[in-house]
Amino acid sequence: MAIVKRDEGKKVNANINVTPMCDVMLVLLIIFMVITPMLQNKVNVELAQTDNPTAMPDADHEDAVVVAVTRDSQIFLGQDKVSLADLGPKVADMLQNKTNKMVYFRADARAHYGTVMDAIDAVRTTGVEEVGLLTEQRQGRETPPPAAGGE
């Protein structure tokens, strides 16, 4: 009876093949480079300055309904540009299944007042009762001025 000895262990290659890992990393890098600019959910507007330091943390949520009016009278719902006529129905669709029916407005400080009011009216005609106006706190003042008639 003969004993058969197999020498397959000598054929094992212990070198690490890094080519597939580099391919996967490059694909992930490209995906993140493409998606990262899309993650910004805001339209760039220069907000009006105010002395009142009240904050609205609910406006920072992902599912918050934010309407932005730019200085050239363009209206954005989230990041999508909409016309004034389509603003009301689209806001109503977004608020249909939500418990918080608050709509936040971000208007550029140099936006036309009439356009901002028309946008607010278009949202209010859909049944929205709560509207929040987002502003930035003025720099340089640490405490708000005292209330009129108070000590």
TrEMBL record:
Gene Ontology MF terms in the entry: transmembrane transporter activity
UniProt keywords, alphabetically: Cell membrane, Membrane, Protein transport, Transmembrane, Transmembrane helix, Transport
Keyword Membrane: yes
GO biological process: protein transport
Major localization class: membrane
Family: Belongs to the ExbD/TolR family.
Protein known as: Biopolymer transporter ExbD
Organism: Alloacidobacterium dinghuense
